[in-house]
Amino acid sequence: MLIQRFERHNNNFDLKAKEKHDFKADKKRNTTSTIKAIALITMTFDHIPAVILEPLMAYKSAVLPTGISYVINAFEIIFRFLGRIAFPLFLFMMVEGFFFTHDRKKYALRLLLFALISEPIFDLAVSYTGLGIDGLHIWDPKIQNIYFTLLLGFLSICCIHILLDKFEERGISPLDIKIKDRRMQSLKPILVIIAISLIASLIAFFIKCDYSFRGVLPLITGYLFHRYKATAKQVFLAILITICIFNFLELVGFLTLPFIQTYKGKPGRKLNKWFFYIYYPAHLGVLCLIRLLLSRII
């Protein structure tokens, strides 16, 4: 009896020690909120040159001292370098959002809503023919904001998801290719994925949304890896490598691997979900106002 009590006490002690260790390890892991915060900060770094520094150098370089111009150019390079981190993280979070959202229709509607809200602010920020108010354009058909890219990618993976589910209900999987299949049943899911990817890429190209097809295809790639049970690190690498195929400068995104390796797939600190949507047009508007202010000062 005494031995049984001792063993029970020992087991309880081991269990508490394990729970304490797991809690400490869990605190060291990154959450969805952490990854989104990193993406927002680095996106802001990327947009400071696009909205402020590049126009400043384009229209005021002649009146700026040489030293100031060198400093601005240096900051432009550094901020652009850091900004390469943002887009792969946003796509990774989009893939996570697709699988964990409670309502995909509402998710898509939120993307559409903020695509429409952000468009005039985006055009005011990046489409300019001068630093002053006269150089602003409230609508520019030559480029659309990133929400249109994300919406198009999200709708693409929704279509692929529905069709792959139907194929798998019939016992057909893109992972089970049979070379001797005369009816080509096993190739049908792959052809569907290619067709949807091609259509989405063409739409992205013709409507001139930000990142174009280079933003849609990595999202589809990440979705496929996630669907077929890849780890978070593998999903992120799939997205990043697909992006790098079209732009090797995006290799900077590999710097975020430590954050993905410690990602635990939990929401983390509760923040209003609308904050992450509103931040995009809000920060562009603020940067545009700063540019207008500088145009009056310099």
Mean pLDDT: 84
Shape: elongated
Order of helices and strands: HHHHHHHHHHH
> Number of folding domains?
1
Unreliable spans: 13-27
Can you tag this structure with a few keywords?
elongated, mainly alpha, 298 residues, 0% strand
What does this structure look like?
The protein is mostly helical. The N and C termini lie far apart (87 Å). It is 72% helix and 0% strand. The chain is built from eleven helices and no strands. The radius of gyration is 24 Å and the shape is elongated. The protein has one domain.
Please outline what is shown here:
This protein has helices spanning 2-27, 32-60, 66-83, 86-100, 104-126, 146-169, 188-206, 213-227, 232-246, 257-261, 273-297. The chain is an all-alpha fold.
Task: Write the SSE topology.
Layout: H1 2-27, H2 32-60, H3 66-83, H4 86-100, H5 104-126, H6 146-169, H7 188-206, H8 213-227, H9 232-246, H10 257-261, H11 273-297
